[in-house]
Amino acid sequence: MEAQKTIAHEIGGVQNDALRFGLHGVKSDIVGSHPLESSYESERKTQGEIKRRFLAYTYGTAFPLKMDLDRQILSRFQRPPGDIPSSMIGLEAVTGALDDFGFEDYLNDPHDSETFRPLDMHHGMEVRLGLSKGPVCPSFM
Hints:
One of its GO terms (cellular component) is nucleus. This protein is an all-alpha fold. The protein has 7 helices and 2 strands.
């Protein structure tokens, strides 16, 4: 039996399908995130742990576990890929993100930008079902 002669699309853990995802940028691999961004993320994680500990002391140890289960269930509930993005309103309500005032609230939604490439519905479903690798939306690689 002959071995199949195929060329792997993945080299070094990076998806290299230029027709589907566009050309790969090297700048994002070299330049790290901004120091304030990493500081903000670490502070957010610390505040989350403090909040979990406070809830465990106040309502018992099962309450933070129930909140984690709710968060996991609500993070899986999404619309199929297509023109209408999933709002994830349930997850935002549970995590308290409805009260946050982000950049998209006063600047612009990234989906409305001129450089946004529309989502390929077929590829999005392939990624979700595990038939293909890569980001669901090629604009946010």
